[in-house]
Amino acid sequence: MAAPCVSCGAPLSYRLFLGGRVSFARRHGVWKAAAAELQIGAGSQILRLRHTTGVTTKKNVAALRRETYTVDFIKKQIEEFNIGKRHLANMMGEDPETFTQEDIDRAIAYLFPSGLFEKQARPIMKHPEQIFPKQRAVQWGEDGRPFHFLFYTGKQSYYSLMHETYGKLLDVEKRQNQLQAKGLFSENTKTKDLIGSRWLIKEELEDMLVEKLSDQDYAQFIRLLERLLTVQRDAEEEFVQQFRRSVTIQSKKQLIEPLQYDEQGMAFSTSEGKRKSARAKAVVYEHGSGRIKVNGIDYLLYFPVMQDREQLMFPFHFLDRLGKHDVTCTVAGGGPSSQAGAIRLAMAKALCSFVTEEEVEWMRQGARRGGSRWGRELSPRDLGTADHRPTRQGAEEAGPGGRPQEVHLEEALSAPTQAGRGDAGVCAHVRPTDGRDLPASVRACCGMVCF
Amino acid sequence: MGLRPPHCWGGGRGGNDGPGGYMWLGSLGDPGPRGCGDEDSTVPGDGCPRGPSRVLARIRERRRLMGHVSLAHSCFCGVSARFMEPYIFGSRLDQDIIDLEQTAVHLQLALNFTAHVAYRKGIILFVGRNRQFSHLIETMARDCGEYAHTRYFKGGLLTNAPLLLGPNVRLPDLIIFLHTLNNVFEPHVAVRDAAKMQIPTVGIVDTNCNPCLITYPVPGNDDSPPSVRLFCRLFQTTITRAKQKRRQMEALYRLQGQEGPGARGQGPAALPSLAA
Fold it and tell me: Is residue B192 within 8 Å of B43, Cβ to Cβ?
């Protein structure tokens, strides 16, 4: 039988009592009235639904919208948490005084091992402030007068922030006008270095204000801050810094291998590369005539397919150093194409030692020029295939990226195949439709070395 | 149309042109004499401050009639214009000039009412949607300890307040409109909503506004900065003085209560209040 749901006060319809059997296994007094009625009518076979619930509990609509936790409730939860923490420490045989959150996490993972894949579904024991969402206390006093002067706007924190910021803007402008009037205004050229930081995002602002914002509100606020900064670059530093977050600059600078010198005094540089399951080590000599030996075998014989040899060629072609270097490399694992790709990466890295910094940067950005989409966020559609290559109409004939065949070197293709995603691997596994006339137009070349 | 009563004229043109080239008949000079003497007028038995607010209005009236700020607006042909006709003195060069004598009367009533509401600890909400003065109005509201709303007015803010603002929220007891129109030159939603929720309103109505739903309309210019600043200052002073008066009366009653607990039997709670 359907379990009664008293809290929702919804009438139940159950055709359970066919034959007039009544079960009195209910605890709720609510049903006594109903059951009594039913018993009276037990003679009749079919029972009609009677709305005779004694207590209709109406749901508190406001509470439905948002779980409101009272201050006392949260305080009680915090006390319970602290006591529980001490119990846990005792259980684990550790000192309750110095029991940190990491210890708690470890203890819980030990005591309640869970094989659930979803980490957030596993048992947790954290401070209540991290579990219960932050909420607003009641906004008005005993006499009903709200505390904040912008309460009746609905978004008091946000609008008061806008008000404050605008006030600061006016002050700054006034000060500048005064200085200008006195003639003391100097074009301050000290441009505050805002490069290492970004404006905080909408979610962070919402957390700060404990209030929901719309996108337009957020945009308006950022625009106001920008306006403040255009008026005066170093205006109200502490205030503005509240809304900036530092950005960890991903300085993936390529480690440039130092040059080594062999017995004849020839400079060479060694480096490694991988692609799929192939691992390669390449030694590039400074002077040479473009001979490449792979595992002791000449590359022409090791890679019968033209495409693989193109891969080997590409780093040199990119730097216009075809035929100027000798290479000896060893490779293992994977198939021919992935081995070619691995060697290509290894050679490119090794070449960095012979090349200037700008060219290294240029090589790094080789993938980005021409609208290449390597490293893009994959849409669910792209994720449909096993190797995440886009399966779109015209993808095959036109080569990767859907562009027609004649793509010059400088216009790197878009949508290369996903090469070595875990590693900074060589991007495209190019597949020119006809292997003619290389190196004049090295088709379908996506970036070089991507770090 | 070239009629101008002599006392409405100030000096020549002065001050800055408001937006849209509104005419200035005068400029803000030095502040007029403060307090023409009978500020501490006799306080009636129930402590209602009938005196100060009237005095206040008289001060301001005189100041304005000295031609400090002209209250004029460009000619507006619309439905609202018909409602504002009684308040318009005349027009010159396509500018409607508001009759300041009527304005004075209306302003006096409005300020008196505001003072009473503030005396009785009512919640006063300042509403205005002209973005030029938004900051000014909010600052003014904060300084007198009242509330302001110069932002986008959400639909059911007054009519659906329990949902939007909280279950047992107390609505404003008086709404003062510094601008009756919103940014699209339509009547502000709060005018109609306040009428629906039976909240009295005071509003500065310009020649393109509709004064019908406003309890205490005050015909005046709502577009020029000096004019808005004047009104802001007026309301601010009224409210602060009324609150002061209230505090004085409470202190007085408390003293009386201490001296003779059985004699009067009146504590500060005996003073009328809107909070109940």
Answer: no
- β partners of residue A282: A271, A329
Identify the pLDDT of residue A16.
40
User: Taking a C-beta distance cutoff of 8 angstroms, is the pair B175, B110 a contact?
Assistant: no
Strand-pairing partners, residue A284, are A269, A327
CB A414 within 8 A of CB A310: no
Rounded to a whole number, what is the distance in Å from the CA of A152 to chain B's nearest CA?
7
Backbone φ, ψ for residue A15 (5° rounding) = -95, 60
A330 bridge partner residues: A281
Q: What SS3 state is found at A295?
A: coil
* Cβ-Cβ contacts under 8 Å for A288 (sequence gap 6 or more): A324, A325, A326, A327
Secondary structure class of B204 (helix, strand, coil): strand
Domain B53-253 fold: Rossmann fold (3.40.50)
Unique residue bearing structure tokens 């076979």? A45
More confident residue, A448 or B241: B241
pLDDT at A274 over 70: yes
- Break chain B into its structural domains and give their ranges: 53-253
Task: State how far the Cα of A305 lies from the Cα of A289, in Å rounded to an integer.
Answer: 22
A62 vs B: CB within 8 A: yes
Half-sphere exposure of A130 (CA within 13 A, CB side): 6
Residues from chain A that touch B146, judged by Cβ atoms under 8 A, are 149
Using the Cβ of B269 and the Cβ atoms of chain A, whether some distance falls under 8 Å is answered with no
The pLDDT confidence band at residue A406, using thresholds 50, 70 and 90, is very low
**How far is residue B118's CA from residue B107's CA, in Å, rounded to a whole number?**
16
Q: Are A332 and A279 in contact (CB under 8 A)?
A: yes
d(CA A345, CA A363): 11
- Whether the per-residue pLDDT at A330 is higher than 90: the answer is yes
Residue of B nearest to A140 (CA): B169
Question: Per the confidence metrics, is the pTM higher than 0.80?
Answer: no
For A359-411, the DSSP string reads HHHHHHGGGTTTS--TTPPPPTTGGGSTT-----TTTTTT-TTS--S---SSS
pLDDT in tens, A277-302: 999 999 988 888 888 999 999 999 99
pLDDT at position B39: 33
Burial class, B154, CB count within 10 angstroms (exposed 0-12 / middle 13-18 / buried 19+)? middle
SS3 B92: strand
Q: Do B275 and A145 touch (CB under 8 A)?
A: yes
B272 and A CB contact within 8 Å: no
ipTM: 0.77
Q: What per-residue confidence (pLDDT) applies to B27?
A: 31
Answer whether A149 sits within 8 Å of B170, measured CB to CB.
no
Q: Which of residues 105-144 of B touch A (CB under 8 A)?
A: 121, 123, 125, 135, 138-139, 141-142
End-to-end CA distance of chain B: 53
pLDDT grade for A192, boundaries at 50, 70 and 90: low
Q: At A322, is the pLDDT very low, low, confident or very high (cuts 50, 70, 90)?
A: confident
Residue with the larger pLDDT of the pair A119 and A377: A119
What pLDDT is attached to residue A233?
82
